[in-house]
Amino acid sequence: MQKVLIANRGEIALRIVRACRELGIKSLAVYSEADIESLHVQLADEAICIGKAPGVDSYLRADRIISAAEIADVDAIHPGYGFLSENPDFAEQCESCNIKFIGPSSQSIRKMGDKAVAKDTVRAAGVPVVDGSDGPITEEKDAIKTAKRIGYPVIIKAVAGGGGRGMRVAHNDVSLRKEFHIAGNEAEKAFGNGSVYIEKYIQNPRHIEFQVLADRHGKVLHLGERDCSVQRRHQKLIEEAPSPFLTKELRRKMGAAAIKATKAADYEGAGTIEFLVDDEGGFYFLEMNTRIQVEHTVTEEVTGIDLVKQQLLIAQGEPIAFDQKHITFDKHAIECRINAEDPSRNFTPSPGCIDLYYAPGGHGVRVDSHAYGGYVIPPYYDSMIGKLITYGKDREIAIQRMYRALDEYLIRGIKTTIPLHRAILRDPAFQSGEVTTAFMEKFMERNKTFD
Ligand code: ADP
To answer: Ligand 1 atom 19: the closest Cα is on which residue?
Structure first.
């Protein structure tokens, strides 16, 4: 592979530029008019503007991205996360133009992208899934019937959902009737597909996901888990590896299930199998993300494996050069997502100019960010402006280091989630590792302002 187009922006585009450079592969950035000053544009070998600021006019324009790929004569397209990364039509267009889509085949994306089909696929492979409807539900009476069978509370989810949106919980027939219609309308608006399905709502679960890698030659490995239970409105804020909850035995079982699910998807590349885990260690497949994830960094720091480079090598057709027995987890890593939002004001986005920027450093600290002093954060995209990762020999050291690094991180001119992270790190429940997806709601009741 000689040249790769990066169909993304922000920190992940920069992350991919870096991996390409280390492998001696040229990178082509595509960018919107709002991102001309962005670091990924400045640091890539080449750059092409693909349209106006809004995502629908640029990073979501498959036709323009493919044209840029053809003009610049690239071998492959790396989609990053978000935007077109899980769009099977885009992957298919790449395939038909003979441009390698860095990720699985369009068929695999299609299979795992439809949450109902994904659940059926992994269930058939023997992986436990959350009890729920068989496929999408269109009639209210079928929703009620399903809820009767599996028992309340239930969660209504969009078949095409993502990013924690389009989910509604119902505790009885009355609320189910109401939420069912709201969820359908919301899903139609957000995803252009109003199909919803129903599953058992697991109370106070942990969100624990497994990183997998699969090559074209039949090798499938897992790189351990990430605990992503610190979530606000189903969106992850802090991730860590390993999970403070998993025993060796449960890790072995869940890892084996993750590999089975990956094989059932006929998968190639890096992917994530997400599970919900209950108090007793019962685990249930939630979904597969068929792309690199934001939180891949903690897995990299714990295993020492560069996941983006692995994606590029696998896309080149190379076999994975190590086996399951070579993968060890002898460190602990934590990631805090730094968002340009004001946590004291209901997380209102805070775009604008960063007057002063100083990123933390020192032993055991990694910062993945496209921000710099003088950078103007455009209002059009995701509010994440960086990821702060700390690691060390155990969880306690990673936490101490995170606390120290958060204090060092200076971002002036805009509001960020740094003060929120400092407060979470001080919380006794977080420190003892007793965190479920219900943690943040209670935490926000106890903590109203952050500074
Ligand atoms: P998305 O694709 O939008 O990210 P997911 O299916 O991955 O949606 O779920 C995101 C989060 O929503 C989970 O991490 C969990 O906190 C919550 N969630 C989803 N399904 C359930 C369920 N059946 N029971 C309890 N919580 C759930």
So the answer is: 286
